[in-house]
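Subject: two folds for Thursday's group meeting

Dear M.,

Sorry for the delay on this. The cluster queue was jammed most of the week, so I only got both jobs back this morning. I'm pasting them in the order they finished. Each block is the input sequence followed by the predicted structure tokens. Could you check whether the formatting survives your parser before we put anything on slides? The first protein is the one we discussed after the seminar.
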Amino acid sequence: MSMVSIGEFSRLSRLSPKALRLYDELGLLVPARVDAGTGYRWYAVTQLDQARLVAALRRIGVPLARIRDTLALEPESAAEGIHAYWAEAEAEHAAQRVLVGRLVDHLHGKKPAMYEVTVRDIPDRSLLTLISRVHQDDLETRTRELFIHRLRGGGVPRAGGIAGAPFTIYHGQVSGDSDGPVEWCWPVPDGRAAELAADFPDLTLRTEPAHQEAFVRQENPGRWASGTQVEIAVGALFAWAAEQQRQPSGGIRGVLVPDPANRGAGPYVEFAMSLS
């Protein structure tokens, strides 16, 4: 096996020694050999393809944790994952463009175009809930794990109509730096609430009183919203509440509404706020 020093490998891969040390610590690019006495790193020339892939993925902004997952995949699956990441990045960029336009209009004293806000009545209902702290990168995974794999996969029934749609409540900012907390809520039939709660001791059963809810619908049904899309929707809700002199109650909600016209694509998201 042809080996080169970390300095030579850095030159060939165009990754700095500092980056190579970090990638070693994270298990992304582990040296072929480390000198037991000096700790000096040596790399195999055959590792250059992986190193260049890591460098390219970092150049397009792929998070380190996602790169680690990508490297563990077969080439075809890795390619699909990279394509999916870039589609998400383009959606986020488009949302940022909209947000910038609205900020510029605001600073120029213009009233920016907003999402249409609608109000609906929500009856009192029983909820199975879980509160936890989570960053943006892990939010979708945690939501799928609870709602899809545990509750829906376990055959746990929901209340009927829009009041039975699962939803999350953001009790604090959720981003790469802020971790909420987030409350996941699964509405269940009142008559079976206690029975169902007994099967999930880690979840909390609580009753939510009847209230009105203002909401905006996500522009791209079937897709999970980016952080910027959430920010735009939240801004629209708070602007509407101020104009209508309505008092928001609690955190912003992401309601997962089943889309019968788009079977298999998952629910679409409606961002909402409870009104007192």
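Second protein, same layout:
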Amino acid sequence: MKHETIRACSIWRALEVVGDVPVLLILEQAFLGKHRFDEFVQKTGVARSVISNRLNKLLDSDVLIKLPGRHAGYRLTEKGRDLFPIALMILRWQHNWELGERGFLIELIHADCGQKLVPVAACNHCAEQIDPRQVSWAPGPGISQITALYGRRRMQTAVAIAKRGNQTMVDSVIELFGDRWATLVVRACFTGIQRFDDIQRDTLMATNILADRLDRLQKQGIVQAKPYSAYQDRFEYRLTEKGRDLYPVLLALLQWGDRWYADSKGPPLLLTHKTCGQALRLQPRCSCCAGGLHIANTAFER
């Protein structure tokens, strides 16, 4: 039996590991300095059985390592620490668009200048802030097709833990990147695929699922529908300013996927920053001193 395939990219490969709401919440707490199983349960509001399952998956993926001793807990590996730019870009988007939506605030302090900061998504070559409209892309040597396998459990889990008491645990960006269906819709829009039938062919989603994700993305203000013909029921789905500002998160996911999952041929996608003409690489920078941010010089405060 022949299975239909979709175009592979390092974003998809990264989401195979981190594209899940409980996983994102666990990683958030790991970057906030939490290490123990009970801390993950308490701080995320996720059921113990789900936390146990996801921790095992993160161990299998070499994102976490379990230290010896009953109460030693879990630590991020090099591969796990390399997710730091993704965390920074998620925090950046939350600060720009949904500040305070979750009932608590995470602030960053840059040790090099001592100031509270908002991460800036900058080009590693020219240090200019990245605008997705100034980025061109071309197929890379590792481009391939993969069979799309989607699971229902992830979306159900996201809904189940959306709130804990009066505290919202999941905001739009965590919900989005915890759902690979929705993320693939946004990916399609960034690559100029904007019509319903074209998005469906690109993602191989069932039409009812695609309609649901497009409706939710519109309600979140990430895409907007615009008629493209005399028939008022035919629309193009275009990213809003809020939607375009998700680009640094996608770029950080792509870079992480390129580093840890690209095959020997090379990355599936090549990006060029038109502003400087160089291969695009994201470098998170401090909004106060413009210095580079990395895990050793950036502290989180909740």
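Two things I noticed about the second structure. The chain has one domain: 5-247. Residues 105 and 302 are 6 Å apart (CA to CA).

Cheers,
T.
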